[in-house]
Design a protein that fits this description.
The complex is a heterodimer of chains A (254) and B (528). Helices cover 80% and strands 0% of the residues of chain A. Chain A is mainly alpha-helical and 254 residues long. The mean pLDDT of chain A is 85. Among the domains of chain B are: 47-110, no CATH class; 246-325, Tetratricopeptide repeat domain (Serine Threonine Protein Phosphatase 5, Tetratricopeptide repeat, Alpha Horseshoe); 359-528, no CATH class. The chains are: A mainly alpha (254), B alpha+beta (528). Chains A and B meet through α3, α7, α8, α9 and α10 of A and α1, α3, α4 and α6 of B.
Chain lengths: 254, 528
């Protein structure tokens, strides 16, 4: 376990030193703070504008950071041959993958937390000093669960594919995950499309279940189950993806 | 040998684990679908994209919108569309894109009730009223507004503001008090509302419902509503005042009506109307009492008087329904060429949906004519339909849609008789003793003053003007002094019917007497 933690912190340290990550973080905070300026574009709907832009900035910039970190973490180690040095020590392949996963999660969630902090300040200003809506905190928790799930997919892909492949497929996963309910509705006209849609429905993650924006904007109460179940979903999906990552990475020859 | 033996074994185990992982993913996917189903049940799920794409106006289905749908940026795209729609609304020449943009915003983020609310408001109010920019009949914009709200309610069944606006639109634009009451009651009782809306709704909606019951001529129901309201808000001054007013003015007449003492009921209502002749609730009750008596034309007169009160769409609707009942509007349209039909439709539109003119907005007649009067020794003021005129009073007709018209003539009527004409603005006539009717002549449709403005038509084949209100009445009382003019004459009298004459119209084209502009399209009318 100590090895995993060590690799995790090393990964985190390496991640936060990347300039690209800082640039994305700045962009995200700029976008969140800018919602105060651009809210005048939606006269009468300023609250909606600030909440939409804030929550989506946190989610999408964090996903972008996750892709850029996750896609390079393992392939770069392989290309630079630094992986051999690590594996020469008493560190199992599974521990290596788990450490990379935890380190990436730590870096991404750290950035997401900074963005959330900026959003909280903007939101309180928008609400003229009123208390923070508890649903926003729940949304942040769900976004974290969503990010963890997404990182596990990227780590799985990076155990056997190149950086470019991981980048491309990650973006596809975002599209599929964001439109999960859409694929359920498409009528399959041939057996090929039937198999494809079935595969997408069965295997692609469903990012829509982590979204509470409608409840936040309409001040609807959210049942605790609907917070708990998506988190369980994320935990199940992440566990399976990590298991597959261990198996694939274990079988890979360098 | 050992490595050869273990390699296939490891591969098999790996394959098994991958298969198990796949199966696990399938199971997890099903779990995710179940969670989504629960979210839909709880009303916090996002809209289904397939439905959304189908509903987005084709011209707004741009790459940005599609990209937003595919990548989950739909709420940002909705905000963008909303912002653009506001921009288009403020810039001249871009109005045709306002509605598609607003509708795109609604569809992209259908669970945000304010989009539906404002879109409907633009349709039923702004676009319906703006003659310069609309390209459909006014009614269709109002229908669009109502449809937008009902669609919005499908997505937001707990959005109290949509119920409120729907109730208001039915009452204000359609004069349909039954539906207005239904939706306003929904707004008052819907349980899941935004806190700040609930605060208002607790008092305002029950008051609104009670007031609509009053307008619908149901004072007993209105009293019940106010009593329910005052159980929770005993200090509500509006409720107290309204209760007293209903008891004082209408309750007795309503009881008489329900006990079939219709003559007594009418006497009581008219007694009240004598003091307050513009009271639309009294006029509605009078019309309903006359309907119960079988006095169709008397009811028609009361509805017309009500329709002249500003924004009394209920009376306007009932008035048109009454006309339809006697087949008058059908007759009016017969033989009119298509172009004139359009004009006729616009006149009818305007009659049904008057705009507020001159601040007080009273006495709008037909195609934008305001009738006012100057009491002897007094100053000009709005004229009540049933205001008793005295010798020395001056009637003033103010056309609000004729910038310097040529050849326009104003014809003044009082109690069904033509009492004067004027062809030079300001159009006035002074009341003299001989213009006042005998008490026996005052009845039915002809019991108030009115003015008609028209331009003499050059087409003798067709009626010179369109008139929804002129009823030819015969066989009741003495015929009025106004002669029946030949149909070709633009000055044809008020249908040949004197005061107190009542039979269904035998010749629909016999008398003009309308408030229309004489078959001429008003200068500011919309494109034909």
């Amino acid at each position: 376990m100590r090895e995993v933690v060590t690799i995790g912190f090393a990964t985190f340290g390496e991640a936060i030193r990347r300039r690209i990550l800082v640039i994305f973080l700045l962009f995200a905070i700029l976008s969140i703070v800018g919602s105060q300026v651009f809210k005048t574009f939606s006269p009468g709907e300023e609250d909606k504008f600030v909440v939409d832009l804030g929550l989506n900035s946190i989610k999408w910039f964090s996903m972008l950071i996750a892709i850029l970190l996750g896609a390079v973490m393992i392939p770069q180690e392989i290309e630079r041959k630094t992986l051999h040095t690590v594996l020469a020590k008493p560190v199992g392949r599974g521990q290596f993958v788990l450490g990379k996963f935890l380190g990436t999660c730590l870096a991404v969630l750290f950035n997401a937390a900074l963005m959330a902090l900026a959003f909280a300040v903007v939101y309180v200003i928008q609400q003229k000093g009123q208390n923070l809506d508890p649903a926003l905190l729940l949304q942040f928790l769900l976004t974290c669960a969503e990010l963890v799930l997404f990182i596990s997919i990227i780590i799985f892909l990076s155990t056997f594919a190149s950086t470019v492949f991981v980048l491309v497929v990650s973006f596809c996963v975002i599209v599929l995950g964001s439109t999960a309910n859409f694929w359920k509705q498409i009528p399959a006209e041939s057996w090929i499309s039937q198999v494809v849609f079935l595969g997408i429905n069965a295997l692609a993650p469903n990012f829509e279940i982590f979204d509470l924006s409608r409840a936040i904007l309409t001040h609807a109460s959210v049942s605790p189950d609907l917070i708990y179940y998506p988190m369980v979903y994320s935990a199940m999906y992440t566990s399976i993806m990590l298991l597959l990552s261990f198996v694939v990475f274990n079988e890979r020859e360098f | 040998m050992k490595s050869l033996a273990t390699r296939p074994m490891r591969l098999a185990i790996t394959a098994l684990v991958i298969l198990a992982g796949g199966a696990g993913l399938v199971g997890t996917g099903r779990w995710g679908q179940q969670v989504e189903y629960w979210r839909e049940e709880a009303g916090i799920a996002q809209p289904q994209m397939a439905t959304s794409i189908k509903d987005i106006p084709v011209q707004e289905l741009t790459g940005i919108v599609l990209g937003a749908l595919m990548a989950g940026f739909r709420s940002q795209a909705a905000n963008f569309c909303w912002w653009k729609s506001q921009q288009y609304w403020e810039e001249e020449g871009h109005w045709p894109r306002v509605l598609p943009m607003m509708k795109a915003a609604c569809v992209l983020d259908p669970y945000f009730p304010e989009f539906w609310e404002v879109t409907s408001w633009h349709e039923a109010y702004n676009l319906a009223a703006e003659y310069e920019i609309r390209d459909l009949p006014q009614d269709q914009y109002i229908d669009m507004g109502i449809k937008t709200l009902t669609t919005g309610l499908l997505y937001n069944p707990h959005a109290v503001q949509l119920y409120e606006l729907l109730g208001w639109t039915y009452r204000d634009k359609r004069g349909d008090l039954d539906k207005a009451i239904y939706y306003s009651r929904q707004a008052a009782t819907v349980f899941h509302v935004r806190a700040e809306v609930t605060k208002q709704t607790a008092i305002i909606q029950p008051r609104f419902v009670a007031h609509m019951y009053e307008e619908a001529g149901k004072p007993d129901e209105a009293l019940l509503q106010y009593q329910e309201l005052m159980i929770d808000h005993p200090e509500d001054s509006v409720g107290i005042g309204a209760t007293l007013t209903i008891r004082d003015r209408y309750l007795e007449a309503d009881r008489a009506r329900r006990q079939s003492r219709l003559v007594e009921a009418e006497r009581l209502v008219r007694l009240h109307l004598h003091d307050d002749p513009m009271d639309k609730i009294g006029l509605h009750m009078l019309a309903q009492i006359r309907e119960a008596k079988g006095d169709t034309y008397g009811a028609l007169a009361a509805w017309e008087a009500g329709a002249m009160v500003w924004k009394d769409t209920f009376a306007q609707r009932k008035y048109v329904e009454s006309l339809r009942l006697i087949g008058r509007d059908q007759y009016q349209l017969q033989g009119i060429p298509k172009k004139n039909m359009l004009i006729a439709k616009r006149v009818a539109d305007h009659l049904l949906q008057p705009r507020q003119i001159l601040g007080d907005g009273v006495m709008q007649r037909g195609c934008g004519v305001v009738l006012r009067y100057i009491p002897r020794g007094g100053t000009e003021r709005p004229l009540n339909p049933e205001t008793p005129l005295r010798p020395g009073d001056v009637l003033v007709a103010k056309p609000e849609m004729y910038p310097g018209p040529q050849g326009v003539r104003a014809v003044f009527y009082y109690h069904g008789r033509e009492i004067g004409q004027d062809s030079e603005p300001p159009y006035t006539t002074t009341i003299t003793e001989d213009m006042l009717p005998n008490e026996s002549e005052v009845s039915g449709l002809t019991q108030f003053a009115k003015v008609e403005l028209f331009v003499p038509s050059e087409q003798p084949k067709y009626p010179a003007r369109f008139d929804l209100r002129e009823i030819k009445m015969q066989g009741r009382g003495a015929p009025g002094p106004s002669p029946v003019a030949p149909p070709s004459s633009p000055m044809a009298g008020p249908g040949g019917g004197g005061p107190g004459v009542q039979t269904p119209p035998s010749s629909p084209m016999a008398g003009p007497g309308g408030a229309g502009p004489g078959g001429q399209s008003p200068p500011s009318s919309p494109r034909t």
